[in-house]
Amino acid sequence: MNELKELLKLSKKFKVLLISLLVLGGLGATIISSLIPTKYIASTTLYIGREPQKPGEDYYTYDGFYSQQASREYTDTVVGLLKTSDIYRSALEKLETKDVSASEFLSSANVRKVSPQVISVSVTREDREEANKFLVVLSQTVAEKSKSLNQLGDKNFFVGTVNAQPLVTISKVPTLLNGLVGALLGLVVGMALVALYQYLRVGNKE
C-alpha cells in the first residue's frame, strides 16, 4: 500500500512527463492511422457444379447423386487454380494493365472453400472500381480456364457466380480508436518509467 501511495506521489511529480507521453502516444497513433489508405474489398461466391447426365435405358443416374459427388471433388481443383499465379496473369491480360503484377494480384485475393461446392473469393484494392473490376475478371477467367481444362475430360463441370455483381465493402482504419489505444500505451509507458525510477531510487538508498 505504501508503495502504491509513493507511486501516486511520483505520478503527480512527473505529471508533465505522463501527460506528454499520453498526448504523444495518442497523436502519433492518430497520425499513423490517418496515413494508412482506405481499402475496398470486393467479394463474390462461386458455385461448382456438374450437369447430370440424363438417365438412359442402360443406366440410372440416382437423381444426380454422382454428379454432386464429382462436383465436390472438383471444388478443390478450382480452389487450387485460384491460388496459382497463372490465373491472375491471365486475368491481368484481360484487364490490359501493367501497373499490377500477377503476384501482387494474387496477394490481394482471399480464397476460401466454405462448403463442398461453394468458394468465397474476395479482392482488396485501394480503389472501389478497381476492386470490383478485378474480381469480375478473375471470376470469368477461372470459369473459362476450368472449361478449357475440361475439354479433354468431363465437359459437364461448370463454375458459376451466385451473385450477379460482387459486393464491395469499405475497410477503413479506426483512427479514433487507434488514437485512444496509442494514448493509453503512452500513459502505460510513462507509468512504467516512473515505477522504474522509484525502484532504482529505493535500491540506491539500500
Q: Secondary structure elements and their pairing?
A:
Layout: H1 2-13, H2 15-35, E1 39-50, H3 65-81, H4 85-95, H5 102-107, E2 109-115, E3 118-125, H6 128-149, E4 157-161, E5 167-171, H7 175-205
Antiparallel strand pairs: 1-3, 1-4, 1-5, 2-3
Helix pairs in contact: 1-7, 2-7, 4-6
Quick overview:
58% of the residues lie in helices and 18% in strands. The chain has 206 residues and is of the alpha+beta class.
Give an account of the 3D structure.
The protein has 206 residues and is of the alpha+beta class. It has two domains: 67 residues, no CATH class; 133 residues, EIF_2_alpha (Alpha-Beta Plaits). It is built from seven helices and five strands. Strands 1, 2, 3, 4 and 5 form a five-stranded antiparallel sheet that branches. Strand 2 and strand 3 form a beta hairpin. Helix 2 runs antiparallel to helix 7. It is elongated, with a radius of gyration of 29 Å. About 4% of the residues have low confidence.
List key phrases describing it.
18% strand; elongated; 206 residues; single chain; five-stranded antiparallel sheet; 2 domains; Alpha-Beta Plaits; 5 strands; 7 helices; alpha+beta
CATH class of the largest domain: Alpha Beta
Number of domains: 2
Low-confidence stretches: 57-65
N-to-C SSE series? Answer: HHEHHHEEHEEH
Give the integer mean of the pLDDT values.
Answer: 81
